[in-house]
Structure formats: C-alpha cells, structure tokens
Amino acid sequence: MKPFKKLSAIAAPLPMINVDTDVIIPKQFLRTIKRSGLGKSAFFDIRYNEDGSEKPDFVLNKPAYRNAEILITGANFGCGSSREHAPWALLDFGIRCVIAASYSDIFYSNCFKNGILPVILPQAQIDELMKEAEENPGAPIEVDLEKQVVTRGNKFSFPFEVDSFRKHCLVNGLDDIGLTLQKEAHISSFEKDTKSKRPWI
Amino acid sequence: MKPRTLFEKIWDDHVVHRTDDGTCVLYIDRHLVHEVTSPQAFEGLRMAGRKVRKPEATLAVADHNVPTYDRSLPIKEEESRIQIETLSKNCAEFGITLFDMKDKRQGIVHIIGPEQGFTQPGMTIVCGDSHTSTHGAFGALAFGIGTSEVEHVLATQTLIQKPAKTMRITVDGKLSPGVTAKDMILAIIGKIGTAGGTGYVIEYAGEAVRSLSMAGRMTMCNMSIEGGARAGMIAPDEVTFKYIKGRPMAPKNDNWDKAVEYWRSLNSDDGAKYDVEVALKAEEIPPLVTWGTTPEDIVPITGAVPSPADFTDPNKKKSVERMLEYMNLKPGTKMQDITIDKVFIGSCTNARIEDLREVAKIVEGKKIAGTVEAMIVPGSGLVKEQAETEGLDKIFIASGFDWREPGCSMCLGMNSDQLKPGERCASTSNRNFEGRQGRGGRTHLMSPAMAAAAAIKGKLTDVRDL
Known about the structure:
Oligomer: heterodimer
CATH topology of chain A: Aconitase, domain 4
CATH class of chain A: Alpha Beta
Structural class of chain A: alpha/beta
Strand order of the largest sheet of chain A: 1-6-7-8
Mean pLDDT of chain B: 97
Mean pLDDT of chain A: 97
Structural class of chain B: alpha/beta
Low-confidence stretches of chain B: none
Number of helices of chain A: 8
Helix content of chain A: 25-40%
CATH architecture of chain A: Alpha-Beta Barrel
Number of strands of chain A: 8
Distance between the termini of chain A: 34 Å
Radius of gyration of chain A: 19 Å
Strand content of chain A: 15-25%
Radius of gyration of chain B: 21 Å
Number of strands of chain B: 19
Strand order of the largest sheet of chain B: 5-4-3-6-7
Low-confidence stretches of chain A: none
C-alpha cells in the first residue's frame, strides 16, 4: 500500500448526500477478479451518457477537475454495499483523499486499506471547502495526515481527527495482516481457550 | 461486574488482544465467502505466500452472479462464469467448503448460513457483504467487511476492530394485520435515517420483535445496514434454539447442551447502558413503501409522494428534487395511483420459505395484472425444494409469476435479471438506490405481502384491502 503523508492537489466538489457505492461503481463492474482498472468506470451512471459519451456537467468530466486527487462531497458518502471496488475505483481514477461530514462504516474502513484518506470535517467547513473548490477550481488544497489538518494557503486551516492505529498504518503504508500475524501466539492461545470454553465452535 | 449489553458480552468473549488505544484483535468464529468480493483476497494470499488459517471456519457459495434460469445451460456472461469458476478454484486450492451451483444447498449467502446451522448465537460472523447483519437475528455479532478484511480473516481468523457504540431500538406492542417485519424495519430506518446507525451496533428489543419468527428477525437485522448500522442483533431465545436444533452444522449431543447453556447467558443485563435508545409503537406502523432512492424515504401505502418543501435541511431538499426526477414522481401523487412494470420477490431480505408462503396466500387463485412481469427467486435450493413440496410453485406459476433458481438476482442485477431504463418495480429487496436494479430502473421497497398485492393490481396497493 502506498503511504499517505501529505497531499497537495486539486479538489473536485460533488455536492450530493448519500452517494452510495452503487453510484461510485455500478454492479456490472464487480465481475472483475482484479483490483485494478476500475477508474474509467467510477461514477459510471452519472459520468457517462447511455451512448458512452461523457456528461459534460459531471464534475470529473470538467477540464479543471479531471486531475483532481481530492473529492469533497456530502454526508454519508459510500453508504450501501461493502464492495471494496468503490475505493479501488476512486484510487484507480486518481482520488487519494475524500473529504465529507460522514461516511458509511464499511467504506470508511475500506479506504484506509487502500491508501485513501477519508477526512471527516463539520458540515459548515465542508460547505466552505465546497464553495472554494467551485470558485477556484485550479488552486490546490493541502491535506496533511501527519499534522491532521486541511489547509488552503492562508485562507483556512481545518484540523481533523483520525484513529491513531489507522493513521499509523496509512502514514507508513503498512499491511495490517503482517501486523496481526505478529500476534500469532495470542491467536493460538485464544483458540485453545475457545476449545474448552465453547467446544461447539 | 458492571451490567453488559448483548454486544459487549460477545465482544468481550472474542478479544484476542487489546492495545492501550482500545484497538482490538477480534477473533472471528465464522466466515462466509461469495464470488464477488473474494477473488482479490485469495489472490492477495497467493501473492504473499499465506495460507488460510482455519479453512473449516469458512463456508463459500456463489450467489451474486449466478443465473436464475436453467442451471444446465452454460452461463452466458463470460465474466460471471470466470468469477464463479475462480471461486471454485480458490476453494479447492485453500481447502474451503463450497456449495456450487449444482448443489441444492446453494443459495444466497445470508440464507444458507442460518439454514445450515452454520450461524449460531454468540458467534462473531463476517462476510464480504454488507447484509451480513442478517445473522445478528440469532444473537450473533455479524457484520459486513471489505475484501482486504476478507483476506485478513482468511489469513488470521481475526479482524482489527474498535468496539462500536450501542443503540437499542425497542418496538413495543403488537403489529397490526397486514404489517410485517419488513414494515417494522422500514419504519425504523425512516425514523433514524439512512445514516442514523453509523458507528453503532443496533439491538432490537420489545414485544413486537420478540414475537417474530426467525425469518422476520432476519429480515429486520438484514436491513440494519440500510440504517447505517454495520450490525443489528436480537437476543437469542427458545425461538432461536428451536430453529437451530437438528440443522446439519448445529452443535450435537453434549455440545448442544453446553451451547444452549451459554446461549441463554446472551441477554443484555438489567441496567446495561446503551449510547442511544429509540422506541417505536408497533400499533402505529402501517404497511410502508419507499418513494425515493434511499431506504429512509418511506411513506404509508395510504399516503402520497412528498414535496421538497416538506423538508427543512437544504441538502436533503436538493436530494429530494433529484430523487423525484429520477423516480419520475410528482409531489402529492397518491402512492396507490403509481403503476408498476415489474415485481421482484426475493433477496437476502425476503426470500425465505415464510416469505413465499405469505405471497402464496395472497396470490392463490388470482392472476397478476396483464401489464406486469413478476418473478419469484427463492433464497436457496432448499427453500425452492420446500416451496415445491408445499405446492407453492404451482400457485405462483398459475398466477403468472416466473419461478426461478436461487440467487441474489434482481436485488442488485449483477446477472441478467435487471430493470430496463424507466421501468418501475415493486421489490422485496433492501436497496432502492439509483440504478441498483438496472440503470434507470425505479425501485419501491416493500414487504412480500405488499409486493404480491402490487403484482395482482398492477400498481402499488394496500394489502389490507385485498
């Protein structure tokens, strides 16, 4: 996993609430057995017309936002299905950071496993960021995970909270399976204990 | 010891290791695997040279992609076929039990787990699927995970987690005739909102919940995720034990007695504290349908399509405008004046034998409307077999329903069962998202009884009037 320390990038505004994982990556793209290549299908139904041409109004089709690496969006982003194809599609498109007031639990967790930082900020700050991204499309926003702050030059500086373990893994690009396997002795001992306490398991 | 909730008891019994910041390595008792969210996890194991730690704790089945037409025919869609074959290869390579398409135990992953007795109270159960919350109906801690976590469970039989907050939702009283577990959970989602349960594990309690069969309890817990909660649970009782006893993977002999003794301890203690308490009265819940594209957008069947002006939050207002346009609905239209094109009875929410019996009661001796195409997709091969033993298939076919092979089918439309653009569907599934059942398709969620009534009338219908 690619570490995430600090990012200075264009932010695309997607002012919709409850963007579900079916919208982020529709079902027909879940038939893949790979993690890669989903970027071109991200937001498929709201990004392309039926004939395959681009919808010019969709934010990621607009020239100013095509290279966006940050997505600013409405509350409850990533709700619905557990499909990790959603963060895979975002990452493959080039999105490394999402900023919203809230996320679904599973999507939120899936982001961290893939080197994407989901930042949570109060709605009032999201509204401000959204306005800024709409009015000054080319100007980058800075997201610093180590310092836990979102900034835009001298204009604003919004601190955010993040779980310390998740931050540690993301900043260092760590594979958490490897970390858990270091606790093998604990797992074995738990299993032995279960055999006597709950032998039917 | 301080009084604990059901969630806290199960959590405490599964902590393998806890660090100072509260992060836990949590032991996972049971793992369900399907074809869509697992290939990349197995590939990850292979790349890292890792094994499956405890293959007997995992059960695999193909359900999302399987065709619901004649199983003797080859699968038409190449990618679906590859994904299903990949699951078979992975299970063979890593020593995991698989119910393949020819096995009559095959079916929707959340239907077969309970059906086989694989799902039991007090367990931690996960699956790369958000509707894993279904298994919480047995008093298990069951939740959906992503593919990276599927890989983590395969490799370590654990997950890294922090405890969730707890919410108790109590539904007192008795449900009125024509009102079901589906209406109860839709009412709850309407009340707490689609993100109301985010960060929480919900425990359902109260007389109306306690009175439900296991099928009804599963319907409720299944849709916890539509209210944002990763897990929903109901304390186990005699109804639960009776359901499990004698199932193929249930505990036997001495182990059964030991298990039941342990299961009886899985009640929230008197005085246990929840972070949030919510209460509803069963008598106040009517048959409900959704009008929008999130499951919180509910309205009584006797009601009308709302207007953006009915909402105060500016973001919701904007979202309502978009939903009305997508759903092609005008504010003020009576729900019962909305005509439908398709009916889908199935999904992990409502494809159990009890659901099919409900439908049969309503459609027996009647024909579906000439303008409607309707399909019934049983939840598993065993549900199908049971329905056929009871002669339900004959009732359905005589009424004009398509009687299909088991799978997820048009709940998410990964196979060829899909809505066409603009088609409107009365569906017993769990999600009415834009494009969920097919690009441009319009979904109204409801109970099996209400979907059956809609099939007969060709429009959304109050089942109590039939």
